[in-house]
Amino acid sequence: MIYVDNAATTRPTQAVIDAMLPCYREVFGNPSSLHTPGQKAAEALQKAREAVAVCLGASPKEITFTSGGSEADNQALRTAAAIGKKNGKTHILSTAFEHHAVLHTLKALEKEGFTVELLPVSPEGLITAEEVEKAIREDTCLVSVMFAQNEIGTILPIKEIGEVCRRHGVLFHTDAVQAAGHIKIDVREQNIDLLSISAHKFHGPKGVGALYARSGIRLTTLIEGGAQERSKRGGTENLPAIVGMAKALTDATEHLDENAAKVTKLRERLIEGLSKIPHSALNGDRNTRLPGTVNFCFEGIEGESLLLLLDAAGICASSTTCARCHRSGKTLSPASANSICKGGFSVMALYTETVMDHFQHPRNVGSIDDADGVGEVGNAKCGDIMKLYLKIEGDVIADAKFETFGCGSAIASSSIATEMIKGKTIDEAMRLTNREVVDALGGLPAHKLHCSVLADESIKAAIRDYYDKHGIAYDPADFPAASCAHCHEE
Ligand code: FES
Questions:
Q1: How far apart are CA 56 and CA 79, in angstroms?
Q2: Confidence at residue 307, expressed as pLDDT on a 0 to 100 scale
Q3: What average pLDDT score do residues 137-144 get?
Q4: Which residues have a catalytic role annotated?
Q5: How far is the CA of 450 from the centre of ligand 1 (A)?
Q6: Contact 108, 74 (CB under 8 A)
Q7: Domain assignments of the chain as residue spans, ordered by start
Q8: Could you give the CA distance from residue 16 to residue 333 in angstroms, rounded to a whole number?
Q9: C or N terminus of the chain, fewer CB within 10 Å?
Q10: Residue 456 CB less than 6 A away from ligand 1
């Protein structure tokens, strides 16, 4: 298996696992306990803090351990907001392409009375320090700009933005979750006040991260409890994970240049190869990008379908949507070329064999020239469309064909639904529910249930069209509008 999804998560190295194991065996004490096992644990915790601090150019007391990057982002933003509020400053600047951990926290702060301004990014996925400076106001209390974009991998001018913020007396936070362990970070040299990292992005364990807060910044507590983390985060420290993170970051930092050179070569090979595919385009600036991140748009190709086919071919990647692809109406498939390894999980594990079978070998694809009824429905949220053609003889559905532009689940649902209605009476087809389609597929993941609704709705739309064309009276209540709660439940 080829795993190119390291932008989503990385596999912990053996060295990291080896560093963690003693914390489950010998060094199992609670770092807050005064007895010997507790003090051993406290020592390991301190060593980990020192190691993380060294890697970031910080001092140990400026490092607070968290449950990951999201918590670190939340705590950083809430800290800066609280300080701002105290000083009568409630304007926050950020960018439109931050991680949800930042964007959603900003939304919550907006509800609490803060004014949030999201700066647009260039088509290359960049923003300049000058643009940030222009947008800073008298009442700006915080600028939050990510170190490197998590999906397209572009690297932002952090040092310059930090310098602008210093000049204007504004706190500067950067979400460095995607950057840490991959490119150089030095909080002092780069004028950073608050910085978030997450271990699982650099071959450390999941569920652990850290927040750097420049000395003098009093952190707002998110988790009340004991006096852990200088009373800024209650709860017994996750020592094995913290030790694993320190080891992973130390190893990554020690081999930063060497790894970057190796991975950049792989990235360039991947870009070269993918660029040869017709209608493909690289997203984000060609050069100012993380060594291991490649994000491509394949016009006309639905992202998840591509992922499923890649997975079937033994390649694990990730997809998302971007403005560029939305303009052309379709999605893209990005990949991280950070490393290629054997093993890893499978996207196919999400889907039953029946779903995969109907997705990879869809039945009844196509159109019927002299169809008696045609129904076209779509989901406004995801943009997926299904068109169903029916041939009706008497009151029996003699043939059904479909054209679906959509995800793997939508294609599988269309395929199995056409199989289910062929040979059935109109009444029987009318009674088919999306739940029955899901059951016939052996289930769909919760976030994909709405895909089956397309099949259900297209059948009703095609039958209604048949009734209209043939002047057959019907009760409109039997044909609800072609949208439903499922379509919006994500
Ligand atoms: Fe919307 Fe499948 S993702 S129909």
A1: 20
A2: 85
A3: 98
A4: 325
A5: 6
A6: no
A7: 10-254, 256-345, 353-488
A8: 30
A9: C
A10: no
